[in-house]
Amino acid sequence: MLFFLHLAEIFQVNGMNRICKLFNIKYPVIQGGMIWCSGWELASAVSNAGGLGLIGAGSMYPEVLKEHIQKTKKATDKPFGVNVPLLYPQTEEIMKIIIDEKIKVVFTSAGNPKTWTKYLQKHGIKVAHVVSNSKFAEKADSAGVDAIVSEGFEAGGHNGREETTTLVLTPLVRSVTAKPLIAAGGIATGRAMLAVMLLGADAVQIGSRFVASSEASAHNKFKEEVINAGEGDTYLALKKLVPVRLIKNKFCKDVIEAENKGADREKLSELLGRARAKLGMFEGDTENGELEIGQVSSLIKDIKPVKNIINDIILEYKTAKEQINHTRFNF
Question: Do 36 and 124 belong together in one domain?
Fold first, then answer.
């Protein structure tokens, strides 16, 4: 029964479904809080266009995060939030800034949701947690989160070890929780949005499509790599450390070679080094840097403003929904 609980709501892309109500947004479109790509310009642009913009705290020192929050406040009067990967240091300082700046929405990932959920909620903050399997979804549910993000194997950045695709993961997670559900991984179009909503999601979280936007803080060379990526040009690497999906550049190929030779965690950590993601995505070294992006990059062919991206997604969603409503399937 959980699978069918909210079908009536999810087909109302007009601010009436559960995620829109929860976050007070127009469209059930969440922008992924991606490291080195999700600064104040991207977050505010997504919020101004009707979605929920997220500042990616994973690549920010606390004082830098505070600056981005304050700039976002000046750039939009719409709701926005902060994405906090719990595996990074200085989490306590980051959470203090979030409280002090009166942020209303926090997305957590890569850690135990019980650690911070109740604390944040006591300060009036809505909490969503990112999971890669149904077991973790149940744990997030029991931790009392306000919403759950189920992120499939197709996604860019840090990923689940199970390699469960979004098409499979979305209904699996829906089967174990009645919480508002946000599907992520491989979603860049309105048709994909409709597909995961038919599978039980209330909303979508989109990352890669927003990397290839005018407002993303990523280096232009990285954006060009994204729109030039073809089918099969990404790879889920570094499973012995923290799995991450990368564009197959020189660095990624070096990682693959090392893994094929049986490199242990220590050798892979040495190869990764420090600031490898910053080198690639923010500074534009597309050969030696870490280029985190999803499989859906092969469908992304242009760089354009966030407003146009969201308008295109919503228009395609509505058109696809109408086509389904007026099509008879004869078998």
Answer: yes
